[in-house]
Amino acid sequence: MQFLMWAVEFLLFTSFFTNPVSSQSETPPGVCSGSDRAALLGFKASILKDTTGFLSTWTGADCCNGGWEGVECGGAAGRVTRLILQNPSLNSDGVYMKGFLSPSLSKLQFLEIMVISGMKKITGKLPESFSNLTHLTNLVLDDNFLQGSIPSSIGHLRNLQTISLSGNHLTGQIPASLGNLKNLLQLNLAKNFLTGPIPFALNSLRGLQTLDLGLNSLSGSIPGFLGQLQNLTSLVLTSNKFSGQIPISLCNLFQLSELSIDQNQLIGRIPTQIGNLKSVSVLRLGSNKLTGQIPESISHLQNLWNLNLSRNLLTNPLPDFSRGLPSLLSIDLSYNNLDLRTVPNWIRFRELSDVHLAGCKLRGPLPNFTKPDSLSTLDLSDNYFTNGISNFLEKMTSLQGAKISNNLLNGDLSSIRLPNQISTLDLHSNRLFGSLSRVFSNETNKFLEVIDLSRNQISGIIPEFSGGLNLKVVNLASNKISGHIPSSVSNVAKLERFDISRNRITGTIPTSLGLLMKLQWLDLAINGISGKIPESLLGIEGLRHASFRANRLCGEIPQGRPFNIFPAAAYAHNLCLCGKPLPPCKGKRK
């Protein structure tokens, strides 16, 4: 750090003599202001590691025209007006900046836009001195690792139109001073650790268009004054601790396109006035404690395409929406107190992409969807369906995920025909029988990533695994599968979870299992597997769970992490396993 600071001072010293600046007016047109350059280099010095490569371009005297990545200047005086550093690879753990947010940036007196987002490892507090950036209109510091509270001094930045601080580790309460920002259009404080109520001072933000406070620990009631913010188009309060009833005033937000207040502790009925939200396209009220019936007025929502009322205490009767909701694409009514018996015709006859009706007390044969090719995800778990599985999924040519677990489905697994592009299949806890040969066919299921067939009555052997499979999760636990573990299991190179516990598997553990470098969960418990636990398994460095209990294994447990630190119960009830965490093998010192 000292060297970096010395380097900054040296650069400032040399730039003083090579580009003498007596006043702003004497700065050559378009050439970077010396004070702004110093402020930027102060930020660069505070970043200890930069794998984005952005800051490596910050060299030379001219920060305006010298190719400094993310830096833009305006006017003849060469003052920095925009600093935009966005991670180009958000999904890559190896692309980041590590360091802290330097207060030196507060010296960029003409800065209008500051975007430093997705850097993951920029830590420390938001500098109080940012209140000096009086020209700032956009402050975007998403997806870093900023800590501490939001400084109330941000309320001095009267020109701010956008504040986005989501995806950090900010704590404390939302400062009431944000209510001073009369020009604010977007406020996003989601995915932090904020607590307390929504301050009443936000009532003055009459121009606000989007408010996202989701995924925090905010509490209290949802304030009624939010219904007075008539310009709101998006209100997201998902996954907090809000209690009380849904304020009727929210139904006055006629420009609202998204209302997401799911995953809270809300009680009472859904207001019948919900049908006044003529512009709403996304309505998420799931995972609360809402009671009563679903109001028929929802049918008036002509633009609604996503309706999620799942995991509440809603009761019959379910309204007939046959003549309403013309834009509906996605519906989730799962896990309420609904007793539907059959899938309503207004759902079966529509061209829907997502149908989730888990735990709705549906019975009899699986439903006939008249437009199956539109379905992308389907969840009919925890019902009482009995038959019709063989050809049920075949015509769902766009289907990516199907969950029909914990039903009473009776059928031959080998007769089930799957659509080619399906990636997730969950049929656990049914009464399926037959062999696994068709399910693991490379020709029909090259996109399959997750398959759960546990707790059925499947028999036969585990088939050979050909190359090219993309499986990540295979759960075959609690069936009647026999034979051995095929050595070709190593062909499933992306496998992360492999559970074949509670079957009738015999033979030995193939050494090729140790080639599954991405494996995190391995459960071979309660079978008839014999021989040793192969040393090759030590190569699986990311393994977090393993169980070999209740088999016929013998010999020394591989003496390396994590196998020698798993609990002793993971190796219990075998023939003669020994070595840590069990007692030492005979003839070996403790």
Q: Any overview of this molecule?
A:
Mean pLDDT is 92; it is low at 1-29. The longest helix is centred in the N-terminal third of the chain and has 17 residues, at 2-18. Helices cover 6% and strands 23% of the residues. The protein is mainly β and 590 residues long. Helix 3 links the parallel strand 23 (330-332) and strand 24 (354-356). The radius of gyration is 30 Å and the shape is globular. The two termini are 48 Å apart. The strands form 7 sheets. The chain has a 21-stranded mixed beta sheet, with no helix packed on it. Strands 12-14-16-18-20-22 form a 6-stranded parallel beta sheet, with no helix packed on it.
Tag the structure with descriptive keywords:
single chain; 590 residues; mainly beta; six-stranded parallel beta sheet; 23% strand; signal; leucine-rich repeat; LRR_dom_sf; LRR_N_plant-typ; repeat
Q: What's this entry about, in short?
A:
The protein is mainly β and 590 residues long. It holds the Pfam family LRR_8.
* Coarse shape: globular
Would you tell me the overall average pLDDT? 92
Hey, roughly how much beta strand do the residues contain? 15-25%
**End-to-end distance:** 48 Å
Specify Rg, calculated over alpha carbons.
30 Å
Low-confidence spans: pLDDT under 50, at least 5 residues?
Answer: 1-29
Share of helical residues: under 10%
Main beta sheet: 21 strands, mixed
Number of helices: 3
**How many strand units?**
40
Structural class: mainly beta
